[in-house]
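Appendix B, example 12.
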Amino acid sequence: MFGLGKKGKYIKDAAYSDVDDSPSKAFLIEHHNDENIKPYFDLAYAKRPEVELYDLKKDPFCMTNVAGKREYADVEKEMKKALMKELRKSK
């Protein structure tokens, strides 16, 4: 699974073929079970949540999704409203 062979070796084109091959991709796939690496593997390959919202001033690398947090509710509501307006406009 995840493009790994029986001995943990990365197998080109075995998985995640929608992402270009690179040393970083191979490393993430080969170490996906390492508790220190899993968060990065998940950021790259896991399913994304329905809503993502990031506070770029506090979190410029977008590592902490603040969607659903009470203190960001007004911003989230405003952005959803703007999205729906644009979707209706563009049909």
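Helices lie at 23-30, 38-45, 73-90. Residues 31 and 37 are 6 Å apart (CA to CA).
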